[in-house]
Amino acid sequence: MIDRRGFLAAVTAALALSRALAVAQSNRPKARVAYLTAGTLEREKTWLAALRQGLRDLGYVEGEGIVLDARFANGSSSRLTSLAEELVRLKLDVLVAGGDAAALAAKNATQTIPIVMVTVADPVGIGLVPNLARPGGNITGLSDLHADLVSKRLEMLKQMSPAATRVAVLLNPSNPAHPIQLRAIEEAGRAMGLAITPLEAKQLDDFERVFASVKGERVGGIMVLGDRFLGTNSRKIADLIARNRLPAVFTQRSWVEDGGLMSYGANFPDVYRRAAPYVDKILKGAKPADLPIEQPTRFDLVVNMKTARALGLTVPPALLARADEIIG
């Protein structure tokens, strides 16, 4: 027979211990992580969701063991400095920076808080880190290899528009990676017999002007470089490209969803998911300086057949065979 008083005392003690553990758990400091980008929530919600899923897969529960804040500059790179400084004042455990401009703003704001960069085209070329294998300092993360993909995009555009002798390149002169990519495009263009016309736009009023400037130049296609400001204005850009009836190649499938002809680039949701293990390792004590910068493992080619038909283009069978997704 179990002594009733002893049983009740044991139950009471167990409940008290349970409550004490619950209180201790609730009072335990939560890991504070933030995300900074020059883009918009609408444009990046799928990518941010992939980061959150990656953290959940590693056992993190938002609001319990971890807090994730996000700041969006909504296409205005000039706002990044104040947003980065605001986040640094929160005494973060990790700052995740999306894109070149955000990563540079984060670097300028702190040399102590660990920074995990994502979708940065050329982290060495723009001065974020000295090398990919041992980045040093407080920055690590993932490159999206845009600088190495530009010649492939140009090649695909030439396949789509074989009669083209001149290609325009829409870029943001405020993006530190764009001059590097433009040089790579010009070099690839010379090898393909293509002249390259840069179109610089860093504010909304620039778009109409730069597209008007190419009307007499017999441009046979256009490349749009990856950039948060350009991405924020994707519908405006897509409309101008359509009005000028230009075959175009982009960096991300979202442009093709907006009516662009095709995109080829790293799979961003996959890249953002792969950022979560960096956050996890740093929260567990790893130093960013010792974590090699990774490169993409998945690249997607997306083709919009409706746009191709509207432009009177025949998509080469070889290009269709390579496509990961066909829209329309």
Structure description:
The protein has 328 residues and is α/β, with parallel strands linked by helices. The protein has 2 domains: 29-145 and 267-298, 3-Layer(aba) Sandwich (Rossmann fold); 146-266 and 300-327, Response regulator (Rossmann fold, 3-Layer(aba) Sandwich), CATH 3.40.50.2300. The chain is 44% helix and 19% strand. It is built from 13 helices and 12 strands. The protein has helices at residues 4-27, 41-57, 80-88, 100-109, 146-160, 178-192, 206-212, 228-232, 234-243, 253-257, 268-283, 305-310, 317-322, and strands at residues 31-37, 66-72, 94-98, 115-120, 139-143, 166-171, 195-200, 222-224, 248-250, 262-266, 299-304, 325-327. The strands form 2 sheets. A 7-stranded mixed β-sheet has the order 7-6-8-9-10-11-12, sandwiched between helices. Strands 2-1-3-4-5 form a 5-stranded parallel β-sheet, sandwiched between helices. The radius of gyration is 24 Å and the shape is elongated. The termini are far apart. Mean pLDDT is 91; it is low at 20-27.
